[in-house]
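Entry:
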Amino acid sequence: QVQVLESGGGLVQAGGSLRLSCAASGNLGVQDMGWYRQAPGKKRELLALITRGGVTNYADSAKGRFTISRDAAKNTVYLQMNSLKADDTAVYYCSVTVGWNTYWGQGTQVTVSS
């Protein structure tokens, strides 16, 4: 069993920054890690993925403002978010892939005030 715990969400003014963290524990062999978000009334959308080797992939909505990074030894992934907009308000979820399984955290709320 893999436990996934996000942290770092909160309330920020438009134009501000936040750094989200996600730690995976309970197993070894973590492969891809990623960040998604879900705004009220919308589907969950992918923001960024990072492989164990550090290769990154971003959705268009995250390019240029968000940066994903990873500490593979600690099974921890980060999402640095800059120039936040009101449209970034959502619950942000971390995903952790181990083998054929993907595990999710409970999410962390990010609210951007305009």
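The two ends are 40 Å apart (CA to CA).
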